[in-house]
Design goal:
CATH architecture of the largest domain: 2-Layer Sandwich
Strand content: 25-35%
Helix content: 25-40%
CATH class of the largest domain: Alpha Beta
Structural class: alpha+beta
Distance between the termini: 20 Å
Number of helices: 11
Number of strands: 11
């Protein structure tokens, strides 16, 4: 626990951290599976200064990047701000002023873990500056505060993938645990982001349409598929992973929110994708392959499909990421 209110007793006064994009669920692993992606990253630069007035708002957020008009800078509504507020309260840091500069590279609200990445980078920056010595589980529990801004609930799949990189299993009961498994070297992903208007707190909207009662046979099918994915990552077998990426519960409910989902899936699989799924809560989709050459073909098919239906999109050919990191610190 921090016991100082003196800026001169803090070793670092500035810290820059980056956290990569991620995808969640991988089909049947709703709220359980996360996978870090090296497609894009958010960068958070945290500056701590001595408090100079009695203003109760000691968190100031600035954001730069493309398509940031709808990202709030109010700390109560921003994923980084939510993380900062919780850490400041719990560690008695209200004697300082905080400037959080966010370089937003991951598009917000499209299923690539944008809010999770900013939240993770903010948490590890606070942990570094104040030497809070959080273990990974505690740190990620704070990072999950940021998901309240986009989903209305704390969930850990995206933040775990962004923080750890590679494939992560989230276990919340009876206690919070994370299990990280290295990905196969040849696992290649193609993420397709349709440039459509999405509602604020899109993830919360996407969660509300999910079925509350599910037949037992569908649960059994999804559990079987999820186990196949885990076995595939453990065995470093891309084909086995892809054999399990089949969801009969969440995908049928959410696919109606994604333009041309059925066409994208059918054409991507025909072009060589080994599996296809909604990325997180969407509207991005993700194809799984074991070949960069085939990934380029699938990427072109995705773009052509959306062009046919007069929708703009961006595609990213990527691999599992290595996780979040501190990129620089500045001594006091």
């Amino acid at each position: 626990m921090v016991k100082t209110n003196n800026i001169n007793e803090i070793e670092y006064k500035e810290c820059t951290a980056s956290a990569p994009s991620s995808t969640a669920n991988l089909g049947p692993g709703y709220d359980v599976f996360g996978l870090g992606l090296n497609a894009l990253e958010d960068i958070v630069h945290l500056i701590v200064t001595e408090k100079t007035c009695n203003d109760t708002n000691n968190i100031h957020i600035k954001i730069k990047g493309n398509d940031i008009e709808n990202i709030p800078i109010d700390p109560e509504l921003n994923s980084s701000g939510k993380v900062a507020k919780k850490i400041i309260k719990d560690y008695n840091l209200q004697y300082f002023d905080f400037m959080i500069n966010i370089e937003k590279n991951i598009p917000a609200g499209y299923g690539m873990g944008s809010s999770g990445a900013s939240a993770v980078a903010t948490a590890i920056a606070f942990n570094k500056i104040f030497k809070l010595n959080m273990d990974d589980t505690n740190l990620l529990d704070y990072a999950a505060e940021g998901e309240l801004a986009s989903a209305g609930v704390k969930h850990y799949d995206n933040i775990a993938g962004s923080f750890f990189g590679n494939f992560v299993i989230v276990r919340t009961k009876p206690t919070l645990k994370f299990i990280r498994i290295e990905s196969p070297k040849d696992l290649t992903l193609v993420v397709c982001v349709p440039l459509i208007k999405v509602p604020r707190m899109k993830t919360e909207v996407a969660r509300k349409i999910l079925p509350q009662n599910v037949p037992l046979n569908k649960i059994t099918q999804n559990v079987s598929n999820a186990c196949t994915i885990v076995a595939g990552f453990y065995n470093k077998d891309v084909q086995m992973i892809c054999n399990g990426i089949n969801d009969c519960i969440i995908e049928p409910a959410r696919q109606k929110l994604i333009p041309q989902y059925k066409q994208l899936k059918e054409r991507s699989l025909h072009a060589g994708a080994l599996a296809f799924a909604i990325s997180g809560a969407g509207p991005s989709t993700i194809a799984f392959l074991n070949s960069k050459d085939k990934a380029a073909i699938v990427s072109d098919i995705m773009e052509e499909t959306y062009k046919e239906f007069n929708t703009r999109c961006k595609t990213f050919i990527c691999n599992p990421s290595s996780g979040a990191k501190i990129t620089s610190v500045k001594l006091n």
